[in-house]
Design a protein that fits this description.
This protein is mainly alpha-helical. It has 2 domains: 1-55 and 218-240, Homeodomain-like (Arc Repressor Mutant, subunit A); 64-182, no CATH class. It has helices spanning 11-24, 29-36, 42-53, 64-77, 81-86, 93-117, 173-182, 204-207, 226-230. Helix 1 (11-24) packs across helix 2 and helix 2 crosses helix 3 (42-53). It is elongated. Residues 119-178 and 180-240 have low confidence and may be disordered. The chain binds a DNA duplex through helix 2, helix 3, helix 5 and helix 6.
Length: 240
DNA sequence: AAAGCGCTCAACCGCATGCTG
DNA sequence: CCAGCATGCGGTTGAGCGCTT
């Protein structure tokens, strides 16, 4: 077998990948990996696309609205990162996961500090990030949701019984969460977003693919990394 | 100036799930 | 129904960078 490349992607690889995704869609990753000549696995190609190259992705710091939304949705769904990401236009599950991790660490540290100064009974659970808590031991698939990053592949996923949704009883992180939230603002109420990227300036939720939406037009990105990759040549790149 | 430390984020891994023949 | 393959998801890792000492 041929040796597969690993590690950071080069700009050339990115250009190559985008080209082939444009040609074949973002579904057949093994195929794309093969025909593109990139010495990457399909998995790696998909990840690169989804987390970095996909048009419409926002890069950079999360807005306070997004931060609040993450907290709110995490409170609701737990570590269902991809699901949370679907509600945050331009953000990836990876990004949100990383944000959450950072957030939890920060909270943990804060808590440690406050506990040191004023020990309380709730000090029993460490609020620092841990993978040990579970929302639900089984993964739940929203198969009737169109994949968030799908750029045009056919939707063939079947439907799933929503009754199989999160089993509230397994929500063991709930306590941990409450502990954290209680020290936060009283309620996390989404406010009208003030998004930095001009792409999302108007009604971002309708631009980003949400649960209910079907196909959507490809949005030609106006931000990095696409402009650096394609410049004006990028125009019409995603047309067909 | 440089060594140490902590943080961020891209990328990998393993497992679960879905699809197809 | 089942097996094999492709894709998706969540957890984890590590390189690189900035800040502190």
């Amino acid at each position: 077998m041929e040796e597969m490349r690993k590690g950071p992607w080069t700009e050339q690889e990115d250009v190559h990948l985008v080209l082939y995704v444009n040609l074949y869609g973002d579904r057949r990753w093994d195929f794309i990996a093969k025909v593109s000549g990139l010495k990457r696995t399909g998995k790696s190609c998909r990840l690169r696309w989804v987390n970095y190259l996909h048009p419409g992705l926002k890069h950079g710091k999360m807005s306070s609205y997004e931060e609040r939304r993450v907290l709110e949705l995490h409170n609701k769904w737990g570590n269902r990162w991809s699901r949370i990401a679907r509600k945050l236009p331009g953000r990836t599950d990876n990004e949100i996961k990383n944000y959450w991790r950072t957030y939890m660490r920060k909270k943990g540290q804060e808590k440690k500090r406050t506990n040191l100064s004023s020990p309380s009974t709730s000090a029993s659970h460490d609020s620092s990030y841990s993978s040990s808590y579970t929302v639900n031991s089984k993964k739940i698939k929203d198969t009737n949701e169109r994949d968030f990053f799908d750029t045009g592949g056919l939707l063939t996923k079947g439907s799933l019984n929503h009754a199989k949704e999160i089993k509230k009883g397994d929500y063991t992180m709930d306590e941990i969460w409450k502990d954290i939230v209680s020290s936060d603002d009283d309620a996390i109420t989404p406010v009208c977003p003030t998004l930095t990227s001009p792409i999302w300036d108007y009604c971002p939720d309708s631009l980003w693919i949400t649960d209910q939406e079907k196909d959507t037009n490809m949005i030609v990105p106006t931000s990095e990394p696409f402009h650096s990759l394609f410049g004006q040549d990028g125009v019409g790149f995603f047309a067909g």
